[in-house]
Amino acid sequence: MPFDGAPVGFESSFERDFLVSCRIEPRIRKVRAQQLQIRYLDHARMTERRYTPDFVVDLQASADVPFTRVVVEVKRLEDLWRSRRDMRAAYAAARVWAWKQPATIFKVVTDLQMNSGWLTNAQLLSPYLDRPHDADLIELIRTKMRSLESARIRELVASVTGRGFSSHRTLAAIYRMMALGELQCDRGLPISSMTWVTFASGRR
Length: 204
Prior knowledge:
elongated; 3-stranded antiparallel β-sheet
């Protein structure tokens, strides 16, 4: 899975879905897969063990969020429940390790959190990050949005189409800008032609 030009590995469709969601989150700067090993003592078995979390996610610093790095384990709720005894010590060690690091937390992400409109919208928008795009068309949309500040997608498409660009190309450019966070919307709601978008300058 490409992330800012660098491939990030995954081992399941659920991990892939997590990466897709990460790709359209503007605060996320980098994702690394299985590059952290945490040593801990399993007191139940009295043995030293190693735990490798699925991902380490680096975030842009923000006054609203007190951390800039998230150590992530991606687990379906059913699997989390089934493995709770075996993984309890590992997760506890990860939380302690994260607590000792600056601006770091440990989080288990489950399908209960992922099965939402956010994931559906991420699956829609993410592919447009990898497709060729027309810089002139995107600049035209920026100019239009600077004057409008907000508009429904269908209104924005109609205002740009006819200036040498088809509605299909215009919509693709809008989706790319939404994936990058340059055009913002309520991503918890299904994206459609009636979705309102607002312009956010200075996004990646």
